[in-house]
Specification:
Length: about 350
């Protein structure tokens, strides 16, 4: 597949903005090229537009060449840029498998790009034939989320690869929660699949949501297209420096993940004991999807007590479901206590 045939023509022909720091490479001591303020301040200089140091470190950590890495202001930036680069507004579409992360459809809507929706199966897996037949016309990009938000489960790897191999557009696999899962990342399959794009983020397991750093792994031609259309200085120097430092502490991230997984199982056991809980879906992520008797009511009651969970009951296949993030042991026991009180309250007051 030739990526240049897939990209929108205006993007393919675009002459990108060339920043001062793009045009200079090498060592210099006097910087009079970017109209910066020369007074000493920690932030008076523009950041590296292509985040070279950071990419080298991420390349080492992930075992992926730096030129196959695009960094965005959160993975949300990568989602938006992929849609903008590959889908012609008013004509072309993306395909999503529902229920899933809401940003794919929102970014498509903002860009006036169509959204085709295919429901996941009852066990929240992609229906490969339905996805492929729905994507025959106008679909340029298929978004798959694994582990999926809000259901929490990994999508079947073979199903993802079958879709990727049969589809002649891009397949984006969003692995925001991969650090909590026991399987390998699909980045291992990038070399065999030139149309595969894998997204990861530092917002979840790494605990850096406030810094906004999303990682996109893909073929060099895809990465080059995203670099061409991004804002020149999309990652602040504060973020670049702080992330470089944080990435030195991989064991700390791994310890957090272990704690969260332990806490997830404690939380699951405690939830199972509550009468209002109908079903707890198995999770490969840092949250659980829970089916209860009356989700909007439980949601409201918890909120009155200061605890917010996510009400997903309006979402495809998620009737009466709440999505609950695994918090600290203290937060989780507050949640369980409130739920227990609520169960008692609901069973003792007759409903009309
Ligand atoms: C949280 C989340 C993201 C957002 O990641 P950022 O890097 O913070 O933008 C992306 N995808 C999914 C599925 C998420 O749940």
């Amino acid at each position: 597949m030739n990526i240049n045939d897939l990209v929108r023509r205006n993007i393919r022909d675009l002459k990108p903005y060339s920043s001062a720091r793009d045009e200079f490479s090498g060592e210099a001591t006097v910087f009079l090229d970017a109209n910066e303020n020369p007074s000493p301040s920690p932030f008076n200089r523009y950041p590296d537009p292509l985040q070279k140091k950071l990419k080298e470190r991420i390349a080492e950590l992930k075992g992926i060449a730096p030129e196959k890495i695009f960094l965005g202001n959160g993975s949300d930036e990568a989602i938006d840029l992929i849609i903008r680069a590959f889908c012609e507004p008013g004509a072309e579409s993306i395909l999503i498998t529902e229920p899933t992360y809401g940003m794919y459809a929102v970014c498509a809507d903002v860009n006036h790009v169509g959204v085709k929706r295919v429901s996941l199966t009852k066990d929240f897996q992609p229906d490969v034939d339905a996805v492929l037949s729905e994507s025959r016309e106008s679909v340029q990009v298929i978004f798959l989320c694994s582990p999926n938000n809000p259901t929490g489960n990994l999508l079947d790897r073979n199903a993802i690869l079958r879709i990727t191999q049969a589809f002649d557009g891009l397949v984006v696999v969003d692995e925001a929660y991969i650090d909590f899962a026991t399987t390998e990342s699909l980045t291992r399959s990038l070399n065999d699949n030139p149309n595969l794009v894998v997204l990861q983020t530092l917002s979840k397991a790494w605990g850096l949501a406030g810094l906004r750093l999303g990682m996109c792994f893909a073929s060099t031609s895809i990465v080059n297209i995203l670099n061409k259309i991004k804002y020149p200085y999309n990652i602040s120097s504060l973020t670049q420096d702080h992330v470089l430092e944080a990435l030195k502490h991989e064991q700390r991230k791994e310890a957090w993940v272990r704690e969260i997984l332990e806490e997830r199982s404690t939380l699951t056991t405690a939830l199972k004991g509550l009468p209002m809980v109908r079903h707890i879906y198995p999770s490969d992520a840092n949250f659980v999807l829970v089916r209860v008797d009356n989700a909007p009511l439980v949601y409201r009651k918890l909120m009155e007590q200061g605890t917010i969970v996510r009400d997903r009951s309006k979402v495809t296949l998620c009737d009466n479901c709440l999505r609950i993030t695994v918090g600290t042991p203290e937060e989780n026991s507050i949640l369980i206590r409130q739920r227990r009180e609520l169960s008692t309250e609901l069973t003792s007051t007759p409903t009309s």
